[in-house]
Each structure stands twice: as structure tokens, then as C-alpha cells.
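Ops channel
N.P.: pipeline sanity check, posting one input/output pair.
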């Protein structure tokens, strides 16, 4: 359809939209248009497919909910949900995002070397606790002690997170001491985490070529990444269908809770920040084809369903607790 028809049909949905807004969506890569020549000296016109209407409706909802700080960020949500986007604009946003991450990490790594860094972090944590909502009335000794403990825990959390970043940026590895401290503070301490996971993680960090991987990515990479995302959605839906909530999944649920509490954020949210990180890993990791092939195997899916079906009884045998299933 031409732009005029697209505008008319979107307005029928009760959405106020202008021709310039359509152009802006195209500029940001949120809408895919097919430019067709009218012939010699006749110019070109842009044709839009039917899904452009659904795309604009979703963008309007995202704007109303303030899900995206900038309209450009909507491209990550649209891509993750399977809407057609301009892959080159998606790539440009990913390159920009990766650059901003590395610049921030370098700044943080530089701060950790400052001799007064612990004191600065402690002041920041104390200020945050002081600004938090307080109970009405005069503060008690107990409430003051709770604030002190909260500020101390926040200070420790910020320092260890900063040291993790500094290790990666300055040394290209994560030291065993820092990794152990992180695990202890996040309540996921184990020798498996410390030794089995740390070593391959450091090997991966040393070989990491994220910047080059993103800059040299092409349309095929983004098609493969989405196919893998679609498969991961299917596997994840199997878990949610059985347990109802991600936090009720045996073994994994508590770990997710601990990590979210540690970092003071929600990982599993429908936000551009989560999707940007996930896409960055998928484009840069170098394992898409192998993982896609593995997950596409019907036998793998069969084994997966057998595993998650056995989780409740397995947990009951280990802990003696009854697992509550969805429905």
C-alpha cells in the first residue's frame, strides 16, 4: 500500500499520525518500505506491507506506556517480537549501544583505581538510603541500624560490581577472588560457579571480539539471531506453561530472584535494555548456528520436556518440598 492508504488505515485504528511521522519511523528503521521506481524521470514511490499497520499500533502503545525513552529504541522490541525492521538501522543502534557500554565500563574501571573509591561509593550509598521513603514519625534506633546495614550492603554491592567491570576492561579476565566474592554476595556461591564457569568465561573474554562482530554483521546474522530467539521463546514457554511463573521454576527461580535483588533490577522485562543486551550477545557470541541446530532437533525438545516434567518430583526427593504447578 502507498503512504496515503497506510495513514488512512492507521487513523481508522484511532491513532493520530502524520505523514512526517511515517517518514520518521522509516528513518529509524521501525517500518520497512519497498521503494519502487515509476520509470524514467518519474521518480519513486514507497510501498508498505500490511504488517506496517500492526507495527504502528504497537509503537503507539509503547509510546503511551513510556516503554522506550527514545523512539529509536522501539526497534529492539519490534525485532524481538518478530515485526519486520530495517536490519541496517538495527545494526547501527547496536553498534552505538556497544560503544556506549564500553565507554561507561572504561570510566568505571578508571574510578576503581582511585584511592578514595571505597569512600566515594560509601557516600553514594548513604545518600541513596537517606533519600529513600521513611516511616512517619521519629526514627528509632532499630530503623537507624537497618539504614546503616542497608547502606553497607549497597556499598559492597556497588564495589564488587565495579571490580568485576574493572577486571574485564583492564585485564581481560575476572579474578577468582572477585568472582568468589560476587557469588557469596549474590547467594549463588558454589565451587561449580567459581571454577567450572569462571575458567571458560575468562577464555571467552580473552577471545572476545564483540566490536568487530557487530560492525561486520549482515542481514543473515540478524535473521539467524531471530530464528534462535524464536526457538528460545518456545523452550521458555514450556517452563512457564508448567510452573506459571518464572520465579516458581525449581533451581532457576531462586537464582533469578537473587540476581535481580543483587543488581536491583528486573532482568525478565519487556524493555529495550534487556533486548539490546540479549541481541548483542547473540550477534557477537559466534555460536548461533550450533545452538540453533541443537535446539531445532526434535529429540532435544523431547528431552527438554522430559527434564522439566521431572523437576517437581526431583526437587521433592532432594528437599522434601512439594512443588506447586500451574493449574
Amino acid at each position: 500500500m502507498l503512504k496515503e492508504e497506510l495513514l488512512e488505515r492507521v487513523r481508522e485504528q484511532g491513532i493520530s499520525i502524520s505523514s512526517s511521522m511515517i517518514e520518521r519511523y522509516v528513518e529509524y528503521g521501525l517500518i520497512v518500505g519497498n521503494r519502487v521506481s515509476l520509470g524514467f524521470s518519474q521518480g519513486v514511490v514507497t510501498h508498505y506491507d500490511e504488517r506496517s499497520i500492526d507495527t504502528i499500533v504497537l509503537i503507539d502503545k509503547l509510546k503511551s506506556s513510556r516503554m522506550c525513552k527514545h523512539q529509536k529504541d522501539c526497534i529492539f522490541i519490534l525485532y524481538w517480537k518478530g515485526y519486520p525492521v530495517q536490519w541496517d538501522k538495527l545494526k547501527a543502534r547496536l553498534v552505538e549501544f556497544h560503544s556506549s557500554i564500553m565507554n561507561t565500563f572504561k570510566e568505571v574501571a578508571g574510578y576503581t583505581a582511585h584511592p578514595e573509591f571505597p569512600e566515594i561509593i560509601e557516600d553514594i550509598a548513604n545518600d541513596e538510603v537517606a533519600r529513600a521513603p521513611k516511616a512517619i514519625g521519629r526514627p528509632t534506633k532499630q530503623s537507624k541500624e537497618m539504614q546503616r546495614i542497608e547502606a553497607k550492603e549497597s556499598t559492597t554491592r556497588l564495589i564488587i560490581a565495579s571490580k568485576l567491570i574493572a577486571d574485564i576492561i583492564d585485564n581481560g579476565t575476572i579474578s577468582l577472588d572477585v568472582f568468589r566474592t560476587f557469588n557469596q554476595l549474590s547467594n549463588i556461591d558454589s565451587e561449580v560457579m567459581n571454577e567450572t564457569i569462571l575458567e571458560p568465561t575468562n577464555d571467552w573474554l580473552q577471545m572476545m571480539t564483540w566490536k568487530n562482530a557487530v560492525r561486520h554483521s549482515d542481514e543473515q546474522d540478524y535473521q539467524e539471531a531471530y530464528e534462535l530467539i524464536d526457538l528460545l521463546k518456545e523452550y521458555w514457554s514450556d517452563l512457564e506453561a508448567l510452573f506459571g511463573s518464572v520465579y516458581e521454576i525449581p533451581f532457576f527461580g531462586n537464582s533469578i530472584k537473587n540476581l535481580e535483588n543483587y543488581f536491583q533490577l528486573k532482568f525478565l522485562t519487556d524493555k529495550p535494555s534487556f533486548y539490546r543486551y540479549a541481541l548483542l550477545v547473540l550477534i557477537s557470541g559466534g555460536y548461533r548456528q550450533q545452538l540453533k541446530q541443537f535446539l531445532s532437533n526434535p529429540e532435544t525438545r523431547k528431552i527438554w520436556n522430559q527434564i522439566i516434567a521431572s523437576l517437581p518430583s526431583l526437587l521433592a526427593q532432594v528437599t522434601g518440598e512439594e512443588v506447586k504447578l500451574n493449574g
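N.P.: looks fine end to end. Confidence is low (pLDDT under 50) at residues 188-193.
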